[in-house]
């Protein structure tokens, strides 16, 4: 046998095997979103990760953007990021436990992506509703799927109710939401402990947390670790070098002129970063229940002996997050 002639073939075979192993090693993810601006930053972050494969993006009309704007805006976003053919679906119009909503002026801003231009995607939304696209993607995958919830969990709860068999192929569900023994973020309300993603469909949140799937909760305790400050914005401005980074800059730029006392954070990008790099967070297993009793405690995520065991991220190393997020989005 001519060894010299065989060497190129062997090298090619080894390279092919390495590529296949790398593909298998990727984190397979479905993102569920209500198309808030921080959701969009989180999605761009994941699409830049070489160790993540986003299999589908499911949208809902029960949170930030109104239903008819949700999927079209995400389709434009993934066109910007160079991944135009990821399946995107329209989701629930009404939550399982209608209670409140974001302020209408906020929702109009989300509908219009606050005027930030996005390219047209030639692809159309899936013909399947979000819950069904989610269930089908999970069930048909050869690998276990991780679901990242960046919105009220209406779609996820419906999928688990209609197709409980999907549970066995879920690796983990990450939830960006809730607040543990900490002030919430509901405006103009006597509810001081709830957070929007949980409050806007408290029943769905409770159903998902109690579903039996491995849950990682990333509440305000953690996602209010990394604030959007003028210093952070100026640092990012000097680094941005691609369309995704430019989009992120346009999202955070208004906070340069924010009034004193106005605070904003990288909420959902932090949750996405915890999913890809858990070493940036500190965690504790807690038994969690979502309060569904009418009153000022409605929608609060509470520690309760009768709750479901949940891995809760209680803090994030802000400097490590900034470095990770900026380096990734600027690739």
Q: Features of this protein?
A:
single chain, 331 residues, alpha/beta, Inosine-uridine Nucleoside N-ribohydrolase, Chain A, 9-stranded mixed sheet
How many E-type strands? Answer: 9
Q: State the helicity in percent bands.
A: 40-55%
Number of helices: 13
Number of domains: 1
Mean pLDDT: 93
What letter string, H or E per element, gives the SSE order? HEHEHEHHEHEHHEHHHHEEEH
Main sheet attributes: strand count, strand direction, barrel closure: 9 strands, mixed
Quaternary structure classification: single chain
Q: Which CATH architecture is right? A: Alpha-Beta Complex
Question: Class in CATH?
Answer: Alpha Beta
Q: What is the fold named in CATH at topology level? A: Inosine-uridine Nucleoside N-ribohydrolase, Chain A
Low-confidence stretches: none
Q: Roughly what fraction of the amino acids lie in strands?
A: 15-25%
CA gyration radius, whole angstroms: 20 Å
Category by helix and strand content:
alpha/beta
Given the C-alpha coordinates, what overall shape results?
globular
